[in-house]
């Protein structure tokens, strides 16, 4: 899986299960689960000629998750929304540098506690009505509303106090303290038309797929489990105009039909994400460009710290030291991965190796178990049945068996795993996948996504009330409030040392996500280290 959290379809409320229904994260997990089987997939109408024809893309995740930008973590919907909606500031899909989108400029002083934005003159919604400051305030009021549970709240409520209307085309953002990293986070607050989404039932419509924005493409049709189509919005006057007259994005979660759609001389599509490692050379041999994006995508282990002996840090560390990561990368990931040496991936701007790095050391693993007074340990490893995760599980079992820990592998549908966690069922260890890069590469955002006193993941691990957890949360809050970038980076790196030592929820390997495209048809494609595609800077050859 590549979505940061596993996903299903829609729902409501603050709980994990309802959040999954909103986000569509389980659909993304399931999308990676298919093996290479007989070809097939949804039928679609294609116009594949260059210079104004239809761009046909294959997305390896479901398009039946929520399309509400304030809620979704669905890979398909988030990628689609980048083309339909705008924020005050957008960010480059790779570097994540902010640039003016609906606003006319990035604030000159990002350390100020008030940011002023002027909206682009002539910006219009896809129904032809003008974009105004009221629309901006409307969206931020929803995000900051203490009575409304949204995913976006977690990215803004800690540092953003309020958003004020100055006049029809000007707004002010009032910060609780200087927070320069907030500029890049603004891309997560897609501005939505108040006259559309303030109507009764409109948020549920957004969850089901209704999308009306101000971006370069408008949503032309939406067919859950089949495809979503886009058309260039002729009245768009923003910074990145549509290069394709029409786009047809197919959702094909099974690996074989997804690969078949972009294979051979009669290929129906020009680009696909989520390419299986086993098909890379086949596609390259057929003339496709296949490149990977390396980022936070990872296999992690999460321990139930209320289930002995996993309350003992030495046991958690022992199980990490026991894993032969080099074998896992070679056999399961076909070389497209790196052993985790920090919670962050090596390409993250805030990365440095953690003080505790879990190199392959079965002797040390045995010593730690002995120190903890643990012998004859039997572990049931509950795991999501995402294809690349299940490929990695035999290496974990062999590694743990080799140090005398008798291991049972228990892969299940992602929905089943997280339903059990929601219901607070007992478990020992979970293996799953995560990728916070869908939201950004900022270390503070990534770490708060995974750790925090009210964090869902910490609820699953049952660790948040421990003394070490409280120390961590204090250090995290202090780092968030630090406005000096150099000092903040050091503070984050230091508290990641604590995270690495405790190994409550911690990555084993970081792996690449592969994208394939036809270089004879498309230029300007850059593979993302997170699910989906972004073609705002692409064009026909």
Automatic annotation (TrEMBL):
Output the Pfam families linked to this UniProt entry. Answer: SBP_bac_5
Annotated SUPFAM superfamilies? Periplasmic binding protein-like II
Keyword list, A-Z: Signal, Transport
Biological-process GO terms, alphabetical = peptide transport
**What terms describe the molecular function in GO for this protein?**
peptide transmembrane transporter activity
Q: Where is the Solute-binding protein family domain?
A: 97-438
Q: What is this protein called?
A: Peptide/nickel transport system substrate-binding protein
Species, as recorded = Streptomyces spectabilis
């Amino acid at each position: 899986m590549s979505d940061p959290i596993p996903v299903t379809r829609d729902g409501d409320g603050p709980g994990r299960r309802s959040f999954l229904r909103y986000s569509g994260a389980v659909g993304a997990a399931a999308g990676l689960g298919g093996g290479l089987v007989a070809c097939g997939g949804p039928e679609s109408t294609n116009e594949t000629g260059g210079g104004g024809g239809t761009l046909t893309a294959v997305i390896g995740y479901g398009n039946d998750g929520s399309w509400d930008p304030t809620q979704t973590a669905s890979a398909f919907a988030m990628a689609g929304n980048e083309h339909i909606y705008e924020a005050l500031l957008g960010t480059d899909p790779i570097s994540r540098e902010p640039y003016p989108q609906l606003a006319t400029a990035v604030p000159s002083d990002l350390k100020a506690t008030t940011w002023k934005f002027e909206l682009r003159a002539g910006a219009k919604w896809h129904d032809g009505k003008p974009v105004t400051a009221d629309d901006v305030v409307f969206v931020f009021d929803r995000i900051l509303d203490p009575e409304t549970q949204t995913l976006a709240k977690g990215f803004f409520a800690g540092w953003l106090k309020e958003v004020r209307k100055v006049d029809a085309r000007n707004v002010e953002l009032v910060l609780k303290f200087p927070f320069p990293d907030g500029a890049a986070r603004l891309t997560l607050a897609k501005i939505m038309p108040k006259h559309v989404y303030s109507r009764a039932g409109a948020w549920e419509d957004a969850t089901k797929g209704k999308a009306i924005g101000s971006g370069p493409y408008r949503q032309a049709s939406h067919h859950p489990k089949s495809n979503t189509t886009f058309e260039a919005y002729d009245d768009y006057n923003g910074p990145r105009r549509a290069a394709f007259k029409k786009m047809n994005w197919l959702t094909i979660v099974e690996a074989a039909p997804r690969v078949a759609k972009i294979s051979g001389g009669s290929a129906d599509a020009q680009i696909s994400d989520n390419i299986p490692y086993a098909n890379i050379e086949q596609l390259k041999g057929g003339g496709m460009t296949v490149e990977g994006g390396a980022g936070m995508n990872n296999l992690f282990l999460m321990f139930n710290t209320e289930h002995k002996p996993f309350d003992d840090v030495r046991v958690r560390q022992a199980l990490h030291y026991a894993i032969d990561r080099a074998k896992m990368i070679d056999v399961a990931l076909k070389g497209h991965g790196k052993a985790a040496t920090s919670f962050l991936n090596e390409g993250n701007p805030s990365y440095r190796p953690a003080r505790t790095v879990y190199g392959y050391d079965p002797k040390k693993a045995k010593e730690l178990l002995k120190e903890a007074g643990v012998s004859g340990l039997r572990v049931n490893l509950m795991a999501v049945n995402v294809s690349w995760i299940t490929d990695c599980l035999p290496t974990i079992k062999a590694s743990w068996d080799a140090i005398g820990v008798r291991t049972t592998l228990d892969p299940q549908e992602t929905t089943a795993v997280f339903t059990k966690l929601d219901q607070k069922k007992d478990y020992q260890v979970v293996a799953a996948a995560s990728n916070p890069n869908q939201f950004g590469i900022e270390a503070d955002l990534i770490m708060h996504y995974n750790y925090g006193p009210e964090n869902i993941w910490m609820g699953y691990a049952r660790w948040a009330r421990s003394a070490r957890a409280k120390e961590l949360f204090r250090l995290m809050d202090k780092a968030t409030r630090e406005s000096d970038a150099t000092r903040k980076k050091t503070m984050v790196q230091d508290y990641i040392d604590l995270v690495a030592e405790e190994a409550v929820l911690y990555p084993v390997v970081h792996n690449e996500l592969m994208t394939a495209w036809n270089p004879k048809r498309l230029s300007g494609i850059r593979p993302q280290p997170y699910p989906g595609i972004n073609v705002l800077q692409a064009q026909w050859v």
